[in-house]
Amino acid sequence: MAVPVFFCRLTNACIEYDLFYVCSVFELTPQQPPWPKPPAALPHNRLDEPPQGALVTVAGLVLVRQRPGTAKGVIFITLEDETGIANVIVWRKTYEIFRRAVIAGRLLRVTGHLQRDGQVVHIIAQKVEDISAMLDSLLDIAK
Prior knowledge:
By secondary structure, this protein is α+β, with helices and mostly antiparallel strands. The chain folds into two domains: 1-33, no CATH class; 44-142, CATH 2.40.50.140. 15% of the residues lie in helices and 41% in strands. The protein contains three helices and eight strands. The strands form two sheets. A five-stranded mixed β-barrel has the order 4-5-6-8-7. Strand 5 and strand 6 (84-90) form a beta hairpin.
């Protein structure tokens, strides 16, 4: 007999539920909730959850911005949040629309389709937003 698996909202983890054990501490639901849908940002450590081609939003500090001469106008951006990194690919057409955010943004929110090849995950950008102004609010919180 298979042991049912439930998602615990309190700990954000899946647990096995023994039918003879009554859990009064945790609120259990029969399934893990879906990953955050745009415009809510998906933490980078959860990029393995959505299926190939899913529309996701990620946000983070810009670590690296690369525009190799051999890439025909493609820009590669690495974003970091508190859980890990996300690789973003910005095609030339998307770059032309969101140029200012791609070039000048220190903190970006990117919406696009997830592309997976083995363990490597990329987000193919469709929308790039510069949310760097939110960094200034961190100073207010620190005071």
